[in-house]
Specification:
The complex is a heterodimer of chains A (688) and B (458). In chain A, 58% of the residues lie in helices and 1% in strands. Chain A has 20 helices and 2 strands. Classes of the chains: A mainly alpha (688), B alpha+beta (458).
């Protein structure tokens, strides 16, 4: 980068470009006109706005949740009684494989991505993510990967090897259908989404924070997003490599996992779990972040031990790389490996325990308001504790030889991922709904939602602990009458349908509350008396996020704009909410311009993937679409020269901030903006 | 502003009570509810399982205490520090406490110390469990394949064996592992196709059988009995139907059993139905895969027509002493009735379809709906009772009549009884080899003769 000029030296004017570059005059490739509209479906497919992308991530994840949930109900209906024949063995194996795959890759991870996309830039006071077009590309890769994966149902059946897809059972010899190819290619495409998203969000957190927001003043959700994205950055390449090996084996008769040619099937297990265990933490950490931000609001106290919470999250992120082989205690990895991984697994419970106790201490001495989000937070703390403790019981390797691959493990990870991640996400939905959509979800229905979910959740997954300890294997399509599994299976099935009803209630709440909201007062920027800066701005968030960008002086900056100490040390309100929030106004803030190229480029990937399965000609076409998309993208100016530009809306602290541009933009011309990474150095001294 | 909904409070209270009651019942079930649960991990019947239990109980106790502690503290805080909505304290803001280092260090160090204690106990137990096998251990090779287990005994040397499982005096059997009580059993596991996992919960934890690798494991039973197991690594279509059982019998009976197993198959009397069955066996596809020692050794081993060209796994159950086993087809069907009073009488019609009564109607064993309401019920798959599945330690088993219906049904159409992938033309990558037993489209007469023959192989 050369010739960096501070933005404020730029000539201001309606058509001024943010840099000295001259505008390209023709549309690249001559295919599309530059998208202009801000409403209608075109605005959604061409958007690069992190908020719209976040909403789309969330919506798509909810749709996939319906699919994955229906699969879960099929599983539970099949296991209602011994020797049921609702599903054949073949169908059951596909359904349970797709249930796990869908819930992990297409529901929990994307909900995390939805919050990261929508919320993280707001929490750090940014206008958008670092690479808005790549952000759109990530989202479309995820959607197309998910749709591609699920299209297998219509094209010969789903994958039938389990979400862990152990070799050699995943080879063509043992699974000659196309299900596993769909699984493999679909997840490779979704992996591109995660990887590009990870780089994008890491750069965003590191470079685009508001002035004064040093790392240790970031809200915890932003911290956990950062840790999560680093986990993705290193974990996704591992699974993608493994999947390419499987792809070569299945499509081109390579011998990576062919035992008769000397392969060792444990290679896949290692590669899968080197990805698979960090995966668990990257699913749970965003929810931990949300809880860490919500609990203080409803306790009216700051988070207890901010550095401990942050560093325990970072520690989990690091230690998460050293525990993968606890999925392989019985695979024959040798006693020394078993011992070492058993101990590392035990000790990852320490930072996890720290989080739970710090959350508890956050509530201690507070003035607790039990709104729906708070109930879900407490639900997470208690239910995740169960999942964490059952995790410790099978970190004890000898005990794990009895428990692994039984329903005890199914119970354990549902307490972690549903009781942990999902409770946190639903709480986050209730909490951030007004910020995103401008109306409150009914708190009363939210409470019904919580209690029904708590009931259904425990009825479903609690009994699985006992089923597992009493010998019921996982992944069996049926069981026999005289094993004593009937009663708890019946309870679990009843629970599953209760759980489904609670999810349904959440969806009903969305629509009912929307209908009612038209007659009700708008919630305003700060309905919860919250603490972090995303609550300074109008609800729903205006397109430009902040105007001006706030200068942050401390943790919980927004709260300290509202409250302060009197001379005698008493805490009092020092400002009305209206005086410290930003009013809604028509702002001509320069924002990244929308583009069709991300969706075009992403669309080429599933086309190529269908081609790899059905016809190499189609693969060629898909490849050409990707290349054309990248060409169009590269030659398109990141900022539409015809779009309105106005004076720079710098931070309220008075110095230039990171306006946000695509990397392409940064590369093709000396960007006029001060790099906000320097804000770390120019940190403003705390005043509160 | 604050409006409480009484209905919601009642519902919340009920849910809380139900959840706590559920956990109480689960605890009770884990401690007291293990009767009639043949696969339970909580009632160890041998030293290795006992060692594991010795870790499980204290670890669960610690976890239980922590769980109750956290629940108690959270509920207490929720009650004690709730916003009571009092007018006079409405403006009061709690002290903005940012943390207390001593508290945080305390609850970092205490769990670490507790885990250290658990860790030390774990390492010690691991050392015990991984110790080399005792000198007099019986060495058995365990081979998993879709969807049954093969067990080969190393008998070359009466005491310890010579490490080979193919000497003339070594024997191989399927589905049922017969072991002497009180003696350590050293297992060498491997697989002939995909990864399986061998698990007899009452005797030890599980160990994967990985193709191309040999994994070591040990078993020991303290008392005679039948100990059941289930393959626990997902191994494809019929994973749910891949079972095994261990029969622990006293040493003297084991010696009798072994001596009988070492004999070649019994030769049926000339002209009998059994002899006709033997002829059928040799003439049909059966003889390319299933070994009956002394009958078709050469054919099974033939490089052109033998089992290697017929099956992906390259091995099918040895039937030399089929009638001494109580189960067949991956230990999911009984080949004998468990109780002397059960079973067919002389006038029971032979060779008819049986039905399974499920909660959603009547079906055959695969789950296809059938209408015939008056057909007899299928033999309960994996029937379990207090007496265990019968076995024959010596030739002949007059007390437990053979279950001809189940075996005949199996021969009539195995794919109907157990999901398999037996058709080579369905899989272009299998090189014409099968996984599982195909429907040989036998006539009723052939089935009758084969059943008679198989049941004579004691």
């Amino acid at each position: 980068m050369t010739d960096i000029l501070p933005a404020k030296l730029e000539p201001a004017g309606a058509l001024a470009l943010p840099s000295g570059a001259s505008a390209p005059t023709v549309a690249p490739l001559g295919v599309f006109g530059r998208p202009k509209t801000k409403t209608g479906w075109r605005s959604w497919v061409s958007t690069v706005d992190h908020k719209k992308i976040g909403i789309m991530y969330g919506t798509a994840a909810m749709v996939f949740l319906m699919i994955g949930g229906a699969e879960a109900l099929l599983i539970r209906a099949q296991l209602w009684a011994p020797r049921q024949h609702l599903l054949s063995a073949e169908a059951y194996n596909q359904v349970y494989t797709m249930h796990g795959t869908t819930m992990i890759f297409l529901v929990v991870m994307p909900i995390g991505a939805a919050f990261a996309n929508y919320l993280m830039p707001l929490q750090i006071g940014a206008r958008d993510v670092a690479f808005p077009r790549i952000n759109a590309f990530s989202f479309w890769c995820f959607v197309f990967g998910g749709l591609f994966l699920n299209s297998s149902w219509l094209l010969g059946g789903g994958a039938d090897g389990g979400w862990f897809m152990y070799a050699p059972n995943s080879g063509v010899l043992y699974s000659p259908g196309h299900g596993i190819d769909f699984w493999n290619l679909g997840l490779i495409i979704a992996g591109i989404a995660s990887l590009t998203g990870a780089i994008n969000l890491i750069v965003t957190v590191l470079n685009l924070r508001a002035p004064g927001m040093s790392l240790m003043k970031m809200p915890i959700f932003t911290w956990m997003t950062l840790v999560t994205q680093f986990l993705l950055l290193f974990a996704i390449p591992v699974i993608t490599c493994a999947q390419f090996l499987l792809l070569f084996d299945r499509q081109f008769q390579a011998n990576f996992f062919n035992v008769s040619q000397g392969a060792n099937p444990l290679l896949w297990e290692h590669l899968f779990w080197v990805f698979g265990h960090p995966e668990v933490y990257l699913m749970i950490l965003p929810a931990f972040g949300l809880v860490s931000d919500m609990l203080p609001v409803f306790s009216r106290k700051p988070i207890f031990g901010y550095p401990f919470i942050v560093f325990s999250g970072v520690a989990i992120g690091f230690m998460g790389w050293g525990v993968w082989a606890h999925h392989m205690f019985v695979s024959g990895i040798g006693p020394v490996s078993v011992t070492v991984f058993s101990l590392t697994t035990m000790f990852i419970a320490v930072p996890t325990g720290v989080k739970i106790l710090n959350w508890t201490a956050t509530m201690w001495g507070g003035k607790l308001r039990f709104n729906a989000p708070m109930l879900f937070c407490i639900g997470l703390i208690t239910m995740f504790t169960i999942g964490g403790l059952s995790g410790v019981t099978h970190s004890v390797a000898p005990a794990d030889t009895q428990q692994t691959d039984t329903y005890y493990i199914v119970a354990h990870f549902h307490y972690v991922l549903f009781g942990g991640a999902f409770f946190g996400f639903i709480g986050g939905f209730y909490f951030y709904w007004p910020k995103v959509f401008g109306y409150m979800l009914s708190d009363k229905m939210g409470k019904w939602n919580f209690w029904l979910m708590l009931l259904g959740f425990n009825l479903t997954f609690g009994p699985m602990h006992i089923l597992g300890l009493q010998g019921m294997s996982r992944r069996v399509y049926t069981y026999d009458a005289n094993y004593g599994f009937e009663i708890w299976n019946k309870v679990a099935t009843i629970g599953a349908f209760t759980l489904a009803a609670s999810i349904l209630l959440f969806i009903v709440n969305i629509f009912v509350s929307y209908a009612k909201s038209k007659k009700m007062e708008k919630p305003g920027p700060d309905p919860w008396d919250a603490r972090t800066i995303e609550w300074m701005i109008p609800s729903p968030t205006p397109e430009y996020n902040f105007d001006p960008i706030p200068t942050v002086t401390q943790l919980d900056d927004f709260w300290y704009r509202k409250y302060g100490e009197t001379e005698d040390g008493r805490l009092v309100r020092i400002a009305k909410t209206e005086d410290v929030t930003q009013p809604e106004h028509e702002a001509h803030v320069h924002l990244p311009s929308p583009s069709y190229w991300p969706i075009v480029t992403a669309f080429g990937l599933p086309v190529a993937a269908y081609g790899l399965i059905f016809s190499m000609w189609l693969a060629l076409i898909g490849g050409l679409i990707v290349v054309a998309g990248i060409y169009g993208w590269a030659t398109e100016h990141p900022d539409d020269p015809d779009a309105a530009h106005d004076v720079d809306h710098g931070p309220d602290g008075g110095h230039a901030s990171g306006d946000d541009h695509d990397a392409v933009h940064d590369a093709d011309a000396g960007d006029g903006d001060a790099d906000s990474a320097t804000d770390d150095e120019k940190e403003v001294a705390p005043v509160g | 502003m604050k409006r409480r909904s009484p209905l919601l409070m009642v519902f919340g209270t009920i849910v809380t009570i139900v959840v706590f009651a559920l956990f109480a019942m689960m605890t009770w079930s884990a401690i007291k509810g293990n009767d009639g649960k043949p696969l339970t991990t909580l009632e160890p019947q041998g030293p290795f399982a006992q060692d594991i239990q010795g870790l499980v109980i204290p670890v669960f106790a610690i976890a239980g205490v922590v769980f109750i502690g956290v629940m108690g503290v959270v509920l207490f805080i929720a009650f004690r520090f709730r916003d009571r909505g009092d007018e006079e304290t409405a403006d009061e803001i709690p002290k903005q406490l940012h943390g207390k280092t001593w508290a945080e260090l305390t609850w970092t160090i205490i769990p670490a110390v507790v885990l250290l204690v658990i860790g030390i106990a774990t390492v010690t137990t691991l050392a015990t469990l991984n110790a080399p096998a005792e000198a007099n251990a019986l060495h058995i090779k365990v081979e998993g394949q879709q969807w049954w287990w093969k067990f080969s005994y190393d008998n070359s040397n009466a005491a310890v064996g010579n490490g080979s499982f193919t000497d003339p005096e070594d024997v191989a059997t399927a589905d049922e592992l017969v072991i002497p009580v009180g003696r350590e059993i050293e297992l060498s596991e491997t697989s002939n196709d995909v990864i399986h996992s061998f698990w007899i919960p009452a005797l030890n934890g599980k160990k994967d059988a990985v193709p191309g690798m040999i994994t070591d494991w040990k078993l020991q039973a303290d008392a005679p009995g039948v100990y059941r197991g289930q393959c626990t690594e997902f191994c494809g279509l019929s994973h749910g139907n891949m079972r095994m059982l261990v029969r622990a019998i006293p040493e003297d009976q084991f010696a009798v059993w072994m001596k009988n197993q070492q004999l070649p198959a019994k030769v049926p009397a000339a002209g009998s139905k059994e002899a006709a069955g033997e002829t059928q066996f040799k003439g049909l596809l059966c003889a390319s895969c299933h070994l009956i020692r002394g009958v078709n050794d050469a054919q099974v081993g033939s490089p052109d027509k033998g089992v290697k060209t017929q099956l992906v796994s390259g091995v099918a159950p040895d039937l030399t002493h089929f009638a001494t086993r109580g189960t067949f087809a991956g230990a999911i069907f009984n080949s004998h009735y468990p109780n002397p009073t059960d079973g067919p009488t002389a006038n029971q019609p032979f060779g008819q379809t049986c039905t399974v009564k499920g909660s959603s109607g009547t079906s055959d064993i695969l789950g296809n709906k059938v209408d015939e309401k008056d057909l007899p019920a299928c033999p309960q798959a994996n029937q379990f009772d207090a007496f265990g599945i019968p076995y024959a330690s010596a030739p002949g088993n007059p007390n437990n009549p053979p279950d001809k219906v189940a075996l005949a049904d199996w021969l009539r159409d195995p794919t109907k009884m157990k999901p398999m992938a037996p058709l080579p033309e369905e899989n272009p990558y299998a090189g014409g080899r099968r996984r599982g037993m195909p429907n040989l489209k036998l006539t009723e007469e052939q089935i009758d003769q084969l059943v008679a023959y198989l049941n004579s192989l004691s």
